[in-house]
Amino acid sequence: MRPNFHDVAGLWDRNGSLRDIYVQNTKAVHWDRFDQLLSQYKCTYTFDGLPLPFPGSRSALANRDGCHLLSILLDGPVINCHFFIPEQLELDISPKEVAESLEHERVLTFVENLAEALELPADITPENCEQKPFITYFPETKSWLVHDDPQ
């Protein structure tokens, strides 16, 4: 069952830090699937602050000569990807953008779509705490796991 807005202690607390969404053990095929998923969403992309057409995830990962920012717009919340390493898809979101149940549902729907497209579990964690998830979505069972307080 999908956790509701109030089910996960601290998930959207506005404590000055971001929330991260992690998918581990990504390979080229997963990045291709991520690019396919992006076609369902409105996105913007910048390279070193300049707005440009998105070159695709594999191209972004191969180009280490600047800073990438892909923003996925969810009708309110914005989820960002910076393309740090090929083995891990890491996205971030500000809890300030998830103030009510509607935004929470949009984020969880995106995470479900992401995990199902990649066929890999996805975690929502405190910022830079990939080993301490708040919640995990498992695409093979289409189920969520709420973890004990990660902090």
Summarize this, please?
The protein is α+β, with helices and mostly antiparallel strands and 151 residues long.
Q: Let me know the number of strands.
A: 9
> Which regions are unreliable across 5 or more consecutive residues at pLDDT < 50?
none
Average pLDDT figure: 96
Amount of beta strand: 25-35%
- End-to-end Cα distance, whole Å, is 23 Å
> How are helices and strands ordered from N to C?
EHEEHEEEHEEE
Q: What shape does the CA trace take?
A: globular
Profile the largest sheet: 9 strands, antiparallel
Helical content, roughly? 10-25%
The assigned structural class equals: alpha+beta
Instruction: Indicate the radius of gyration in whole angstroms.
Output: 15 Å
Our count of helices gives 3
Strand order of the largest sheet: 3-2-4-5-6-1-7-8-9
